[in-house]
Write a structure and sequence with these properties.
Blueprint: H1 25-40, E1 45-47, E2 57-60, E3 72-83, E4 86-92, E5 95-104, E6 107-113, E7 119-125, H2 126-139, H3 150-171
């Protein structure tokens, strides 16, 4: 099934996602569909809320979308520990045409479950650490816009309103 990415200001993006209690065949299919959606949209990470599902699941593949060699699916991921600090320029599939400089932890230790219900522990640094933090932020209802200054957020809000007005005019 082809999934659509929810874009700001969709309400699901600001909600805290629900813990997954059971891994069902439907959940496994959703994970596959999310990976396909991520790759089709030239992304390296995607959280379930970004496709309208307010549940705690993410997919990440920093080799994507070209190679698609290191797909990680995490259910109920949590950042157990982090160290260092790094500034990174980030974009987001739910924030079209937005990029911002974000302070992140340089290294993270993340735990979660795989699609078979096995516990996974990941020690990550570099792009993988940034992607994991970014996607886990989505599960908390935190967007890049929440991590940039008020001016940058305000400018993006104006851009979104202008785009919405344009769509309404074209749709009439």
């Amino acid at each position: 099934m082809t999934l659509e990415i929810c874009t700001y200001p969709h309400p699901v993006l600001s909600q805290t996602a629900q813990t997954i209690e059971e891994i069902t065949p439907e959940l496994v299919q959703l994970a596959r569909d999310m990976a396909d959606c991520m790759y089709m949209n030239d992304g390296v990470g995607l959280a379930a809320p970004q496709v309208g599902e307010s549940i705690r699941m993410i997919v990440v593949d920093i080799t994507g979308p070209e190679k698609r060699e290191e797909l990680i699916t995490l259910i109920n991921p949590t950042i157990v520990s982090c160290e260092g600090e790094v500034e990174s320029e980030e974009g987001c599939l739910s924030l079209p045409l937005f990029r911002g400089m974000i302070d992140r932890s340089e290294k993270v230790h993340v735990r979660g479950l795989d699609l078979d219900g096995n516990e996974i522990a990941i020690d990550a640094e570099g792009l993988l650490a940034i992607c994991l933090q970014h996607e886990i932020d989505h599960l908390e209802g935190t967007l890049l816009l929440n991590r940039v200054g008020r001016l940058k957020k305000s400018l993006y809000d104006k851009k979104v309103k202008k785009r919405e007005k344009r769509r309404q005019v074209e749709g009439e």
